[in-house]
Write a structure and sequence with these properties.
Elements (H helix, E strand, L loop, with lengths): L1 E7 L2 H8 L5 E9 L8 H5 L6 E8 L6 H11 L7 E2 L2 E2 L5 E3 L4 H17 L7 E2 L5 E3 L16 H17 L8
Parallel strand pairs: 6-7
Antiparallel strand pairs: 1-3, 1-6, 2-3, 2-8, 4-5
Helix pairs in contact: 1-5, 3-4
Length: 176
């Protein structure tokens, strides 16, 4: 298995998308890119720690490549919004890729270039790191499958992202 770390706004939303992607095993919500050791949800939401809400995706590179993971990421959130996704505003909701090595960094640069072609050069997604990963609290994991289905915010934001996934990446969907 290989690992990808991306931040595309609310981690509940990006986690929900990647749970439906072929070749993806585990998806963990967490925090990355800040200065405070062992951050928690409240401190990250304050916008003062420098961390982004992010996901760590474990995937099988024989089924889906890192480049394809990044294309799904770029295609299911808005990479042109600086420090925000929809109503979530702040650096903790930034669009960022956290490559784990030089090969991933090169793929991240290529993915941003592809997205810039599609978005007229307006992509603001950053490439950051290396940075330490901190798992989010247990109640954030598998959020959409549980509490998220009753949360009005999630009900407004996640289904459109899942529709983008189904429309633009139908060949990358897990079969039920």
């Amino acid at each position: 298995m290989a690992t990808a770390v991306v931040a595309g706004g609310c981690f509940w939303c990006t986690e929900a998308v990647f749970r439906d992607v072929i070749g993806v095993g585990e998806v963990e919500s967490g925090y990355i890119g800040g200065s405070m050791p062992d951050p928690d949800y409240r401190s990250v939401c304050s916008g003062t720690t420098g961390h982004a809400e992010a996901i760590k995706v474990e995937f099988d590179p024989d089924v889906i490549s890192y480049a394809e993971i990044l294309d799904v990421f770029m295609g299911t959130h808005d990479p042109t919004q600086l420090n925000r996704q929809g109503n979530d505003v702040g650096t903790q909701y930034r669009s960022a890729i956290f490559p784990l090595d030089d090969a991933q960094r090169a793929e991240a640069e290529a993915a941003i270039a592809r997205a810039n072609e599609e978005h007229g050069g307006r992509v603001v997604t950053t490439i950051e790191g290396p940075a330490e990963w901190y798992p989010a609290e247990d109640y954030h994991q598998l959020y959409w499958e549980g509490e998220g289905q009753r949360n009005p915010y999630c009900l407004a934001v996640i289904p459109p992202k899942l529709q983008k996934l189904r429309k633009s990446f139908a060949n990358k969907l897990k079969q039920d």
